[in-house]
């Protein structure tokens, strides 16, 4: 079930109450990063975490301190996958780095502990260098040809970008029809209230930037506001993913009934 919420183009949005007085609950100290932990984190588990959460939070900040506080607010709000320029020291969270445009960028990100890399386009050298390792690389693609090429090159998940400029939910719905086997992340211009639509139409996950890390809230260091937005986005993503899973189960059950009754028609 998707909870209706107006597009978040005003601050504060009418569907959310953003108190400033109550402090955020404390976040447990980060576990010590160890080599053995990263050895056991596979591309498969990272992909599963992204697909099960339904939301990737994309954080851009002007300072490390601001990034840390904003990321902390999002984590407390329930976001389990954070995409940011500064990968901080919380190894139990799936952290990645975006706008990776070269192997040099990729190596720096992986050295800092990134579990996945994301680009606005497919960077062949990064794809060739990391597709056989344990770090998940998610290349960007726009057209059907680009999406299929990225998949054929080894991408386990493809970022459809810039999705809003291409038609948003309608584009995802159309592009998934010929490529139902390709896992896609919708990115660019997505609001919290449209998460359910994107996932229902075939997106495995969505990237949210300003929809969680609101520019005004970031400027005012209003981390309680970010916490509220992250909490709402996490709930939307979870319900959308669960709703799709229930739909698939129901669809399979209906198919079996039709076959048993001899009414199955192969179109």
Please give a quick description of this structure.
By secondary structure, this protein is an alpha/beta fold. The chain contains eleven helices and nine strands. It has one domain: TIM Barrel (Alpha-Beta Barrel), CATH 3.20.20.
SSE layout:
Blueprint: H1 35-40, H2 43-53, E1 55-59, H3 64-76, E2 81-84, E3 94-97, H4 103-111, E4 116-118, H5 124-130, E5 136-138, E6 140-141, H6 144-152, E7 158-160, H7 163-166, H8 169-176, E8 184-187, H9 195-200, E9 205-208, H10 215-219, H11 223-260
Parallel strand pairs: 1-2, 1-9, 2-3, 3-4, 4-5, 6-7, 7-8, 8-9
Helix pairs in contact: 3-11
Overview of the molecule:
With 267 residues, the protein is an alpha/beta fold. The protein has a single domain, classed as Aldolase class I (TIM Barrel, Alpha-Beta Barrel). It is built from eleven helices and nine strands. The protein has helices at residues 35-40, 43-53, 64-76, 103-111, 124-130, 144-152, 163-166, 169-176, 195-200, 215-219, 223-260, and strands spanning 55-59, 81-84, 94-97, 116-118, 136-138, 140-141, 158-160, 184-187, 205-208. It has a nine-stranded parallel β-sheet with strand order 5-4-3-2-1-9-8-7-6, sandwiched between helices. Strand 3 (94-97), helix 4 (103-111) and strand 4 form a beta-alpha-beta unit. Helix 3 packs across helix 11. The longest helix is centred in the last third of the chain and has 38 residues, at 223-260. It starts with 34 loop residues before the first helix and ends in a 7-residue tail after the last helix. Mean pLDDT is 78; it is low at 1-22, 27-40 and 246-267.
């Amino acid at each position: 079930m998707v909870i209706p919420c107006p597009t978040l183009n005003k601050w504060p949005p009418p569907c959310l109450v953003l108190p400033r007085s109550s402090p955020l609950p404390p976040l447990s100290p980060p576990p010590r990063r160890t080599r053995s932990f990263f050895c056991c984190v596979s591309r498969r588990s990272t992909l599963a975490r992204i697909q099960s959460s339904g939301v990737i939070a994309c954080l851009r900040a002007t300072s490390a301190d601001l990034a840390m506080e904003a990321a902390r607010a999002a984590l407390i709000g329930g976001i389990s996958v954070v995409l940011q320029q500064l990968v901080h020291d919380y190894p139990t969270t799936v952290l990645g780095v975006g706008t990776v445009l070269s192997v040099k960028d990729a190596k720096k990100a992986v050295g800092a502990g990134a579990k996945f890399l994301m680009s606005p386009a497919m960077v062949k050298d990064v794809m060739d260098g990391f597709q056989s390792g344990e770090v998940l690389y998610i290349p960007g693609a726009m057209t059907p040809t680009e999406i299929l090429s990225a998949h054929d090159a080894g991408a386990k998940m493809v970022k459809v970008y810039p999705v809003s400029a291409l038609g948003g939910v309608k584009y995802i719905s159309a592009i998934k029809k010929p490529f139902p086997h390709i896992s896609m992340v919708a990115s660019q211009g997505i609001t919290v209230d449209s998460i359910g639509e994107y996932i229902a139409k075939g997106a495995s996950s969505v990237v949210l930037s300003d929809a969680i890390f609101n520019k005004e809230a970031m400027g005012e260091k209003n981390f309680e506001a970010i916490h509220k937005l992250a909490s709402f986005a996490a709930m939307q993503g979870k319900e959308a993913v669960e709703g799709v899973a229930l739909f698939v189960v129901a669809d399979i059950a209906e198919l079996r009934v039709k076959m048993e009754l001899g009414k199955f028609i192969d179109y």
